From TrEMBL, chains A, B, C, D:
Residues 130-219 form the Acyl-CoA oxidase/dehydrogenase middle domain. The keyword Flavoprotein applies. One of its GO terms (biological process) is fatty acid beta-oxidation using acyl-CoA dehydrogenase. This is Acyl-CoA dehydrogenase. One of its GO terms (cellular component) is cytoplasm. Belongs to the acyl-CoA dehydrogenase family. Residues 242-393 form the Acyl-CoA dehydrogenase/oxidase C-terminal domain. Homodimer. The keyword Flavoprotein applies. The lineage of its organism: Bacteria, Pseudomonadati, Bacteroidota, Cytophagia, Cytophagales. GO terms for molecular function: acyl-CoA dehydrogenase activity; flavin adenine dinucleotide binding.
Amino acid sequence: METLFTTDKTRKLIPIIKAFIETNLYPLEKPETLNGNFSAIEPTLKKLREKVKEMDLWGLALPESLGGKGLTLCEFGQISEILASSPFGHFVFNSQAPDIGNTELLHKHANKELNKTYLDPLSKGEIRSCFSMTEPAYAGSNPTRMGTTAVKDGDDYVINGHKWFTSSADGAAFAIVMAVTNPDAAPHKRASQILVPLDTPGYEFVRNIPIMGHTGDSWASHAEVKYHNVRVPQSNLIGNEGEGFLLAQERLGPGRIHHCMRFIGIAERSFDLMCRYAVNREIKDGVTLADQQSIQNFIAESRVEIDACRLMVLSTATKIDKEGSKAARAEISGIKFFTANMMLRVIDRAIQTHGALGMTNDIILSYWYAHERASRIYDGADEVHKVSLAKQILKPYRNA
Amino acid sequence: METLFTTDKTRKLIPIIKAFIETNLYPLEKPETLNGNFSAIEPTLKKLREKVKEMDLWGLALPESLGGKGLTLCEFGQISEILASSPFGHFVFNSQAPDIGNTELLHKHANKELNKTYLDPLSKGEIRSCFSMTEPAYAGSNPTRMGTTAVKDGDDYVINGHKWFTSSADGAAFAIVMAVTNPDAAPHKRASQILVPLDTPGYEFVRNIPIMGHTGDSWASHAEVKYHNVRVPQSNLIGNEGEGFLLAQERLGPGRIHHCMRFIGIAERSFDLMCRYAVNREIKDGVTLADQQSIQNFIAESRVEIDACRLMVLSTATKIDKEGSKAARAEISGIKFFTANMMLRVIDRAIQTHGALGMTNDIILSYWYAHERASRIYDGADEVHKVSLAKQILKPYRNA
Amino acid sequence: METLFTTDKTRKLIPIIKAFIETNLYPLEKPETLNGNFSAIEPTLKKLREKVKEMDLWGLALPESLGGKGLTLCEFGQISEILASSPFGHFVFNSQAPDIGNTELLHKHANKELNKTYLDPLSKGEIRSCFSMTEPAYAGSNPTRMGTTAVKDGDDYVINGHKWFTSSADGAAFAIVMAVTNPDAAPHKRASQILVPLDTPGYEFVRNIPIMGHTGDSWASHAEVKYHNVRVPQSNLIGNEGEGFLLAQERLGPGRIHHCMRFIGIAERSFDLMCRYAVNREIKDGVTLADQQSIQNFIAESRVEIDACRLMVLSTATKIDKEGSKAARAEISGIKFFTANMMLRVIDRAIQTHGALGMTNDIILSYWYAHERASRIYDGADEVHKVSLAKQILKPYRNA
Amino acid sequence: METLFTTDKTRKLIPIIKAFIETNLYPLEKPETLNGNFSAIEPTLKKLREKVKEMDLWGLALPESLGGKGLTLCEFGQISEILASSPFGHFVFNSQAPDIGNTELLHKHANKELNKTYLDPLSKGEIRSCFSMTEPAYAGSNPTRMGTTAVKDGDDYVINGHKWFTSSADGAAFAIVMAVTNPDAAPHKRASQILVPLDTPGYEFVRNIPIMGHTGDSWASHAEVKYHNVRVPQSNLIGNEGEGFLLAQERLGPGRIHHCMRFIGIAERSFDLMCRYAVNREIKDGVTLADQQSIQNFIAESRVEIDACRLMVLSTATKIDKEGSKAARAEISGIKFFTANMMLRVIDRAIQTHGALGMTNDIILSYWYAHERASRIYDGADEVHKVSLAKQILKPYRNA
């Protein structure tokens, strides 16, 4: 379907990727896969990764210099929606968080040696990585409060701290750790990002945190970790000292587009499941759920809400492509809470339409219902984004 | 501000029109004007119409052959938003409903003589018109049920019926009347549209209906009328017999864009008033409403909701421009309820922010609160559009 | 219908009052009455007041010493719901705000002479009164900020200030004016309540404020007034100096019950109109709105929401009856926003069900839609009550 | 706290039970317990059951003849709320569904022999039971559509069918099976309830269905089962043939009160967790979440919504106690959807307040978020109850 955002590349790529996912990934949606350990399905997914490489579809989000296709953020966003229709889509195409963000970060801000040692195998999918920022002791709504420190000692940094929601740490080769290096600087200039190989002594993997009843493992996990006098060379610094938040902010622009398009992909698939079920579920002879106004209301409201979000996210992506993340800061705050809430409403309606079946893992909806609830929390809770957006809007009024 | 939909024409026209409205129309927003009779302000507005003509801004929605600027629907939509920031904007630019719709209808479907007698002075703003469809005895949700009949007698039609919400009939020169001419045809092919000069014997102007406490007059009114053996020549038929619904449907595509962009213009102005008031209203020393999270939430939510609606409506307009109304039928249903509800939420939040002042006619919000409630009813109630949209969505699923 | 709150008195009174209102007041609901000046209908209502006296139903909210029936707050609350089913109910039974509150205030806190001169004719319905607190220059969310002052001069107070929403000032005999008498005291102890006869020199009636397009007059109006060196004897003080907020607070407990039960009465009547219309409005042969799930959803949701509010308000009234207003402070905050929002939702659904008719003044719903929007603002905006309730809830947690 | 519904029995029992649960059950809320198999925690719970017996608190919902305390439904409802504050509360007090319903059913409608064999050990907690009604092939919204049949053969019934959501079948001693015995009767008179011991040949336990990622076992499970020519004596019939729906309906009145009070208990506990966390979670020095208006709004709204639901449910229970389930049919429909939606909103706000922690199983909220989503589906989906309630309300209007 042609839209305002269709380009030659999306026109060509989307149907191929869509077909690949429907054929290869939808059949993997079984209770044992969704509820089980990721490591059990990983061999299967790795074989599919090879297939993706053979089809020359690898690393869609990668910069051209790393073998990517040179897609704009808006183009990749449209593809990301398709990948998200399966919980395995991004992984199989090596476009999964947090590796996609770390790839971009290293590419732009790491020195040559780090790039050779870490970025190269990461972009090939040979290793995985994680991003270690959130701390249990400090509210995420104020990221400048942070307990983890990196103190210079000789040529090294010595890192101490306690983190959680270091997603995908289980099995990762390295972490990008956010730590306070300049405690006396202004709040936003205190922290730096430092690459820490996870076989470094002093790194403690505490546990994969059980989330909504599911502990998970490997890529599909959220770890609690500790850093006890973890020593890495100062050359492992990404960017400059004190730029931790600046780089995090820079990462967030494209990151939000990725997240939001993923939300839209999930919503769109849930919508499709809802419609399919509605026309097939008979409630009396010759009458299906699709004939019920309450269900029709679900469908009509979901349709416009999904479409509105997609337009919002892709027009924000276009703005980032043209003017950069900073110019689109307000839009980036807005789409996050707007799209996450939409996704959760659509999933909820799809479950309600499915009745008892919707609660089960015989269908994917319950998986998303549980796990995607986090979308209103991570990467800025709704309440934080609303305040942030309002302040940006009100600033010129205050100065008027 | 450049957007995805900006063109050379909108880039040039919008700032001029915006400035005109802010300078000339905002100052007219006084209690006596908003609550009083339109006829009292009409002389002032007529002078401004002359000014508009002098500035070569007349008839922005007119086809080029009638002196218009050849704007696409999407271009006019963007201008319509600006016009809607004042309740007098569309009138002063001769782009007001129902004349704008009647103009297009006559232009496309009326014979030469009708065009000469009626379309010509209408497009010049010398006369006004109305559209007479809704009937008190029949639910609007099913337009094929209609009591008004037009029976052939010699060369004439003889029309009998009872209509209401024949908006702007007070002072209009003619009505386009929807009447059943072919009672034995399929439901959607029973009615025709017939032009009836309002000085024809048998036409009874019953009253301007009091709406939300306001009776109004002239253009700003909603009449109840009766047709008692009203006789007009058969050459007053618009299009062909039995095409009444087809023509109404055709009218609705652009008509919805006009309505929805008007809703967006009202929402945007309400949003601006909310922000202005929030930064200025002190609640304790040095603390204003703008510092309150509840108000910040209003502002952030309103911002994304307005922007999402605008993208939806303008992308629908673009689709109509490219592929015609029929291809965009689902989108046209969707934007109507989505945008009307958004507007009412934004007005409501703006009133709540203004507190007691918001209830008064010292500010325009209460006027919109009362009068724009109709937006969820006319031109298809929310409930009707949702069912209609859902059915279109579900059709391919049923046939699968 | 027997409920948890039925008493012998309500069992006897309610059916009589209900029948009186349906017979005598419902027929007065005409566009010209609802949109017109209250003074035009006042003679009719005054005759009905005589009838009420003859039936020994006068002053249901009065204390027994003033000829009342000794109803508990919970009992009067139940009757207040019935009175509210007509916009004229409270007035005809002399239970209308603000007189009902002023009556109670004078009865408890004014000296004998004031009581003789003002309370006596007020309780007999011979004069009317008003309460002059809100000021345009200060946000109502923080009542301790106030510009009006009362300065002692000899035996008098000299009052200067600017008020608005001094409801029913038009035609009132006196106002209870809130003014700062002790500017150096703690914020909550600065103001006093002083009775000001409205024929006192220096009192300026600026205007009746147009609200939602309706200016109104007499009892049904909201005035802007000014006090220019208005001089009254110090014996006109109500209670003690500095007790202005204390008395206002005391007034609020019962006042909120009155308001909330009025909201419930309006919601219940709107609900009844919605159900009546739904079963009668045909949308195709033999199918009415009552057969549509969207309308059924409106009805089911409204039913439980109204019932829940009534239980909340009457159980709060019971608590006030037993333990006093102070003990029920949290509940009093809670019911205000909960009930006002419920009422507005029910009115909105009833209008939507009525379609175009719902917008007109041919039915009372549009009157309530416009005028009752204020319920979320006056007497504490939603946002203020939520913060206040939350703080009360959180206090013991903070201290834990 | 004294309420309108407090009695001598609740005044005495509630504090004891509350203390027992807080001391003995809250400490069991650990990730491994909540996510693990119920059978792992069962031995611990069984010891606590003995303690409950020793404290003479066993079988609070049992009729006196079975050793219960003769509590009214309203009294037990208030206790049920307390039990629900732990997911193990009802089980430890032997008041858990579906056994509580089966106990009442057998007590009222089974013959002596069945009572001796099954009711006696069931009321002592020696065996467990299940209720086998829902079928995957038929929509629950229309319970008269059912595929399971029980055909007479000699002195036996021979049962064939496929059921799911036969909750707690895993480890149960018997099921009450709903099966069509009279296929030619009116739809509501076709089915009967038959007791089937689960060691009967032909009974197939297919699986415990994975729900929201959790398969569970023992009491905490939802089974899919099949009946292949399962043969039981006709004396296993409960009540009379064709009374299946009548008995199910009778069961539903008290059953809904049980469910709804459970929802309220969960909401109240979630509310308490939200308040505790809000005052303790610092977002900057000296400022906690409790100081944020967005969180205060969550708290204020939750408070009134919980209280309103409790009043609704307990006043419905009182009506059932006084007038029977049939008289309260409308209320019973209303409270179900009203209370379930309230609970889910409160849980959701509590999670949002907890941020990332709320997603984890370190706190109980995520468990309820996932598992209690079913409350809007089982025992009548929201949409079904709304239609049912509306029809009851509209009936007298239609007949007017």
